[in-house]
Amino acid sequence: MAEQQAAQPEIYKGLAGVPVDYTAISKVDPASNSLLYRGYPVQDLAGAVTFEEVAYLLWHGELPDDEQLAEFEQFERAHRALDHVVKKVIDELPLTAHPMDVIRTAASVIAARDPEVADDSADAELRKAKRLFAAFPAVVAYDQRRRRGLELVEPRDDLGYSANFLFMTFDEAPELEVVDAFDVSMILYAEHSFNASTFTARVITSTLSDLGSAVVGAIGALKGPLHGGANEAVMHTFAEIGTAEAVGPWLDAALAEKRKIMGFGHRVYKHGDSRVPTMKLALDQLVAHYDRPDVLDLYDALANEFIARKGIYPNLDYPSGPAYNLIGFDTDQFTPIFVASRVVGWTAHIMEQRASNALIRPLSVYDGVERREVPAREPVE
Ligand SMILES: CC(=O)SCCNC(=O)CCNC(=O)[C@H](O)C(C)(C)COP(=O)(O)OP(=O)(O)OC[C@H]1O[C@@H](n2cnc3c(N)ncnc32)[C@H](O)[C@@H]1OP(=O)(O)O
Ligand SMILES: O=C([O-])CC(=O)C(=O)O
User: Fold this and answer.
1) CB count, 10 Å around CB of 168?
2) Structure confidence at residue 47 (pLDDT)
3) Residue 163 domain flag
4) In this structure, are 167 and 264 located in the same domain?
5) For the chain, what percent of residues have pLDDT higher than 90?
């Protein structure tokens, strides 16, 4: 009789809508479409402070004063060069390996070669986080260059983080407008509460594993097209559609095939991603700088048409994909750029998890075959 059967626990598929812990790092508020980093609205930080200052804020809880910033900048600039072993490992990886595989492997090597690898004190973990932060731009820049048959470019310590990132990639002093737009993208990508990759990092940390392992796992989670991989997928969509005029028929076919349109939709924001307006301004700046109004026409046509038909809004990956394309990055380097930024959020969460740890181990409800007997076998002669 139904009443006598034990009540089935409710399943929260994908943990949708389930709060699993507190965090003081960022507040995602879907009701007001807003995102706060340690209390500051992210759109107010973008353009007002540098990515380095935002990184410091996310790790330390406060913006740096002049002395703290100078000390951090000095540390970051001293750890920018590509380690020779990391370079050797990258050189051994086939070009068929996705750049996310390359940065995941590089992260593992960097972490294992960290001078404080055996020290898991909070201070050492923070320095490891800062060394990964400093090292990732060289990995992305070198990987893009080697795929184009170009030599490594050594970092310049007279440039800020974003200007140096672009310099190491393109071997020319970047223009201020481009640096500013890129810096804004790095600020916007840095942190977003318990997204899939950050949660992955927290799960790994919850077993008291090390920071390097948690970052490597997080990179794996970010790679998927439902998460960070969507910024690359947006460019593939743009290439498939071609021009603004082709959006209508393309969308008819895509929706008939029940395809997901990458760069749209979000688990938490259902009425638009808080970061999109700020990133769209940066994209506008790049479109004007490179004189590419066609990019904006296609961007607007697809966004307007998809919102009108499905009521699903763009997420941050939608404007950042074409922005990175205009700057000159190869499409498959877009998600590694996201890694270079999000390593800040991941490591802030790793340290927060450690400081107030509980092993993350949810329950499952078994729905396989009922208990049964192992079949008897004839004894083997
Ligand atoms: C930085 C970031 O990681 S932001 C996210 C980047 N990811 C993408 O852009 C990938 C495309 N988007 C998606 O796949 C989803 O919107 C996700 C994974 C981001 C969020 O997914 P969920 O919260 O699980 O929403 P869910 O997938 O249940 O969507 C609800 C409905 O909207 C539809 N939907 C959501 N996003 C899209 C989309 N981009 N294209 C087409 N349909 C969509 C779903 O098919 C579903 O329809 P149904 O109710 O008829 O089945
Ligand atoms: O929050 C999420 O689920 C995905 C996202 O936008 C991010 O990680 O920046």
Assistant:
1) 25
2) 87
3) yes
4) no
5) 94
Ligand number nearest CA of 229 is 1
Q: What is the ipTM of this complex?
A: 0.98
Count of domains observed in the chain = 2
| Side chain identity, residue 18 | V
The per-residue pLDDT for range 27-85, each reduced to its tens digit, is 998 888 889 999 999 999 998 999 999 999 999 999 999 999 999 999 999 999 999 99
Calculate the average pLDDT of the chain.
96
Ligand 1: atom nearest CA of 317 is: 1
Which amino acid residue places its CA nearest to atom 22 of ligand 1? 267
Domain range for 309: 231-325
Check whether residue 213 and residue 285 sit in a common domain: no
Q: Which atom of ligand 2 is nearest to the CA of 317?
A: 6
Q: Which atom number of ligand 1 is nearest to the Cα of residue 315? A: 4
How far is it, in rounded angstroms, from Cα 187 to Cα 83?
Answer: 25
Q: What is the CATH number of the domain that holds 100?
A: 1.10.580.10
Ligand 2 pocket, Cβ-based, cut-off 6 angstroms: 192, 195, 266-268, 315-316
**pLDDT band at residue 1, thresholds of 50, 70 and 90?**
very low
Asked if pLDDT for residue 2 goes beyond 50, the answer is no
Active site residues: 266, 317
In angstroms, the CA 248 to CA 306 distance is 9
Distance 241 CA to ligand 1 centre (A): 20
C-alpha span between 21 and 23 (Å, rounded) = 7
Q: Is the CB of 236 under 6 A from ligand 1?
A: no
* Crossing angle between the packed helical segments 66-78 and 51-60, to the nearest 10 degrees: 110
Say what the pTM is: 0.96
Q: In sequence order, which residues have a C-beta less than 8 Å from that of residue 250 and are 6 or more positions away? A: 240, 241
| Angle value at C-alpha 27, between 42 and 271, nearest 5 degrees | 80
- In a shared domain, residues 30 and 124: yes
* Mutation choice for ligand 1 from 267, 324, 334, CB with most ligand atoms inside 8 A: 267
- Residue 372: inside a domain, yes or no? no
* CATH code of the domain in which 292 resides: 1.10.230.10
Which residue, judged by its Cα, is nearest atom 45 of ligand 1?
A: 260
